[in-house]
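Here is the promised in-class demo. Please do not try to memorize the tokens; focus on the logic of going from shape to residues.
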């Protein structure tokens, strides 16, 4: 049991106690009751040390058990009240909606053990606390909770002293975490390209999040979601390959082929260009070379 004296000497010892409790549920690791009234001491710990302690919990092998212990002991309420607010929130609703805390824990456990992605998982539904609305039919909605969640995340990041780059990475996932799950097979290629463009360099983060952000117990629904994600991934790979092929040759190679091989513009030139693109994509011809290189290859082949 973590004593008051030990906590006063080293407030972050509460994290070691949570880790020990996660490893041995039967052990008496909970802090002494007197520690609860002293939890405000955590506010005086250097922000970098607090951030490191929370990161260690999130990437650990027993993240759910440790988070449960920190919540149960009041530590989460002191350090990340935005997440503490999820606990029991569904019980205050006259209309049924899922237990956000339990859902959050499942998503945290399912997502890869990358500290930033797990922070995104931990915070992704925090905006639902302030946006819950129940209409006249008793239907629950959380409109724009993603935007509010990103705002709350930035506040957490400021308290923990995160870098701007880290803050923006996690905030982007929180703010856009619903984009991938909105995908439908009926989307045009242009719509998929727009998704890629809007995601910038963070598409992999959004895909990783979406692969974790479904916790339904209905097998058929889970299978539909997984199949939809596989379909999107395959489509992204196809579009990427097509784009790579389209950009494989310099823009003036067609003219060089016509002049170098003595051809008239037409299907034959298109056939040669298609072969050259395939050779470049396969790595058998260099990308961005002088047109003469491609003319020589085409002459040897055709």
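The designed amino acids, position by position:
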């Amino acid at each position: 049991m973590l004593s008051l004296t030990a906590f006063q000497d080293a407030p972050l010892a509460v994290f070691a106690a949570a880790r020990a409790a996660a490893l041995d549920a039967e052990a008496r690791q909970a802090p002494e009751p007197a520690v609860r009234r002293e939890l405000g001491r955590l506010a005086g710990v250097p922000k970098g040390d607090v951030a490191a302690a929370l990161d260690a919990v999130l990437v650990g092998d027993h993240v759910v058990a440790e988070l449960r212990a920190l919540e149960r002991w009041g530590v989460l309420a002191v350090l990340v009240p935005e997440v503490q607010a999820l606990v029991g929130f569904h019980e205050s609703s006259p209309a049924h909606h899922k237990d956000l805390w339990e859902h959050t824990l499942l998503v945290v456990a399912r997502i890869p053990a990358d500290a930033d992605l797990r922070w995104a998982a931990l915070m992704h539904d925090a905006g639902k606390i302030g946006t819950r609305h129940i209409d006249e039919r008793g239907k629950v909605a959380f409109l724009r909770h993603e935007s509010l969640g990103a705002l709350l995340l930035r506040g957490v990041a400021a308290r923990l002293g995160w870098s701007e780059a880290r803050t923006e990475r996690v905030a982007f996932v929180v703010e856009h975490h619903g984009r991938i799950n909105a995908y439908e097979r009926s989307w045009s290629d242009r719509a998929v390209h727009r998704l890629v463009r809007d995601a910038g360099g963070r598409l992999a983060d959004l895909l990783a999040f979406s692969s974790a952000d479904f916790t339904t117990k209905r097998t058929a629904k889970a299978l539909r979601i997984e199949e939809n994600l596989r379909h999107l991934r395959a489509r992204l790979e196809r579009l990427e390959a097509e784009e790579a092929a389209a950009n494989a040759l310099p823009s003036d190679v067609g003219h060089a082929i016509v002049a170098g091989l003595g051809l008239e513009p037409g299907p034959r030139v298109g056939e040669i260009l298609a072969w050259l693109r395939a050779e470049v994509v396969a790595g058998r011809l260099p990308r961005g070379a002088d047109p003469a290189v491609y003319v020589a290859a085409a002459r040897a082949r055709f």
